[in-house]
Amino acid sequence: MASGVTKLAVGHPFGTNHAEQKHIITDTFLSDTIKIRLQTTGSSENRFKGPLDCLLKTIRKEGPQALYKGATPPLVGWVFMDSIMLGTFHNARLLQQSWNGDKPLSIWQHGLAGLAGGLTVSFVATPVEQVKARLQVQYDTASKVYNGPIDCIRQLVRNNGVPALWMGLLPTMVFRSWFFVFWSSYEVTSRKEEDRAPVD
After folding, report:
1. Nearest-5° Cα angle at 21, 19 to 24
2. Whereabouts are the Solcar repeats (predicted)?
3. pTM reported for the whole predicted model
């Protein structure tokens, strides 16, 4: 899903405010809910025949508001996630620059800074995404376990302890290691654009 990082990458640092985050969720959460439901439905259940069938059945049986189940955790969490990721990325670059002295950071070092940001933000993203996904797959009264994100957190902690919030941390870290590619490729592109820019 999109985040404020996208704004930063195209030249609008920290340009995604809370209202824009809300707009992003409104635009993208529909497809995320469908994706999560398809990923977590076993073939033996035969609940959905495909994305369109999932969309239509969800609206018909639960109403259009069901497409936004679990939207609150990312709405709140993205604010912190972008701040943590970008803060770690920035400080990792500063640290490496102190090692380099006057020598500019290499593409590899920009990638490592991005990797550090991705790994760090995983500790926030994991509980946010877990609560979101658990709420998204509550299809009806029979499958309803949680009354909302706070109740979901309480039940997870009560039944399995605080570490339960970080189940799936390793896969999340592996997934978010893509920030190595994101920031290194961004730096490559930026340098090429600078080389092409006319000299006044």
Report:
1. 115
2. 7-95, 105-192
3. 0.79
